[in-house]
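#structure-requests
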Amino acid sequence: MSCNSCSSGNGKSGGCKMNGTCNTSGCNKLEVYDWLSNIELPSGQKPYNIIEVRFKNSRKDFYRNTLDKKLQAGDVIVVDAIKGYDVGVVSVSGELAKIQVAKKRKNFKPLEAKKVIRIAEQKDMDLWIKARDKEKDLMYKSRTLALNLNLQMKISDVEYQGDLSKATFYYTAEGRVDFRQLIKDMAGEFRIRIEMKQIGARQESARLGGIGSCGRELCCSTWLSDFRSVSTSAARYQQLSLNPQKLAGQCGRLKCCLNYELDMYLEGLSEFPKTDIKLKTQKGNAYHFKTDVFRKTMWYAYPGESELYSLSPDRVKEIIEMNRNGKTPSNLADYEIQKELVSEDVGYSNVVGQDSVSRFESKFKKKKTKKKYKGKKPNKSN
């Protein structure tokens, strides 16, 4: 299957090397695979006329298909915009678009949605590519104008409208910024309509992209679209050290992946007793040191001692119940989990010396040869 929309031509993509699978949104950001595309509609039912259109980065919107043609994922179209038109790529169409509308827009009114004007022609594509090429220079110039006005803001991205009549500037700031003078300066410099949109640090990382500490591309720039708040309690429940350099992501905030396994940790910790309860023994009071949720083990230690005692949650509950009844065990060592030493069966034996470190020494030793003297031998008496 070839893709005619690739810039390199011949049905092969130049950037992602997907070799023609771009028509299924394989190389798009936050792509959606249309798994309902091969399902036929019942007889007499018209196809859903609302489609989802993707613009630069993760910006998407819904439009009403008023054309007689059926639009599929990957088609470049021209859509209606405020005081002009814009160019985008169809990401979802058909019955899957109905599911997306119900999920993202609960009070969506199809008749009030903007219309699809036409399928993009060559002149629309050329103007669209020209707009993308000008965005980087426009961002650098706008940053210079903001620095001249001493504004505490960072312009991270710029998006041109398809007809080059409008530009949207995305910026991040700690507080409120009065950019009225900046808009006047940019409108006089660039001769276009200006729109400013403030985004958060997580949205900025999602638009710019990057590689995380795990070695993979950022979740927010590939598939994550729901940015939930992450607190330091998520790290405490998972027994992680509260090191901001390790827990912070590219955006400078706590990593979103701290919430991925949080529910499983909370479910596992529900079977454990509270860690702030001291275990009273005849030797003294033992304090909680750490907990391993997966091994179901709790470690306790006496003050001033370095030895740790590993106890199961049931044993800890038993000691707590004994303390409530006024009883104290002699020592935690009586309740400690027995450490069984299991000898591992290797499964093979070195019978021919193939694992010896010096097995190659005999092969690479240089043979010492005596030098032969040509002519007469030297007289030793002299």
